[in-house]
Amino acid sequence: MTVENGKRWNHNIHYHPRILGAVPDGARHALDVGCGEGMLTRELRQAVPHVTGIDLDALSIDQAREYPDEVEYVLGDFLTHPFEPASFDLVASVATLHHMDAAAGLARMRDLLRPGGVLAIVGLARSAMPNDLPHDLAGVVVGTVHRAVKGHWEHPSPTVWPPPVTYPQMRGLAAEILPGSEYRRHLLFRYSITWRKPQD
């Protein structure tokens, strides 16, 4: 974790290492979907020569561009921006998929990956009660401890709550749209999806 992130903590930053650990060897081009003010984007730039961040929020993009980090920041809609198909070795997304139609977002991310490229997502979903109650209670306890020790950084980007898709629904979408993907439910109210696009 970078020094910058070492001074900040929240549930999303906590899982940045999952994204960074998924960067494939030899990756040249990476896309950060819903980059916000660019914290993860800047971390990706330390591992990948060419990184693009895209976000719909103008204020967040303006903040991201204040850093001299050689990252291309795009103000626009990820679902419609004219990226070239199969043009990225890594597509990453943290806490963004619930801001759009999840199925459309997953399909678009899949299509932007080169064969052999990796999709790495950390997202939010809606708990389904009562099944998720024990998991959520454990998450509250652990999250409270983290906040007490590390504090809590509130990101400036817009929020959507509650997420429109439940955890079981997201697992199903991942299995359908990204066959062979790895889906995991995490303690701090997040899930992750990791998928490598098959070679042609």
Order of helices and strands: HHHEHEHEEHEHHEE
Q: What is the CATH topology descriptor?
A: Rossmann fold
Give the strand line-up of the largest sheet.
3-2-1-4-5-7-6
Shape: globular
Tally of discrete structural domains: 1
Helix percent band:
25-40%
What radius of gyration results from the CA coordinates?
A: 16 Å
State the secondary-structure class: alpha/beta
* Beta strand %: 15-25%
Q: How many helices in DSSP terms?
A: 8
**In terms of per-residue confidence, which ranges show pLDDT below 50 for 5 or more consecutive residues?**
1-5
Largest sheet: 7 strands, mixed
CATH class: Alpha Beta
Overview of the structural elements:
The protein contains eight helices and seven strands; from the N terminus they run H-H-H-E-H-E-H-E-E-H-E-H-H-E-E. It has a single domain (3-126, 155-196), classed as Rossmann fold, CATH 3.40.50. The longest helix is centred in the last third of the chain and has 18 residues, at 133-150. Helix content is 34%, strand content 22%. Residues 1-5 have low confidence and may be disordered. It has a seven-stranded mixed sheet, with helices on both faces. The chain has helices at residues 3-6, 11-14, 16-20, 39-45, 58-64, 102-112, 133-150, 167-177; strands spanning 29-33, 50-55, 72-75, 88-94, 113-123, 182-186, 190-196. It is an enzyme of class 2 (transferase). Pfam families: Methyltransf_11. One of its GO terms (biological process) is methylation.
For the structure shown, list the relevant keywords:
Rossmann fold; 8 helices; disordered N terminus; 34% helix; alpha/beta; 200 residues; seven-stranded mixed beta sheet; 7 strands
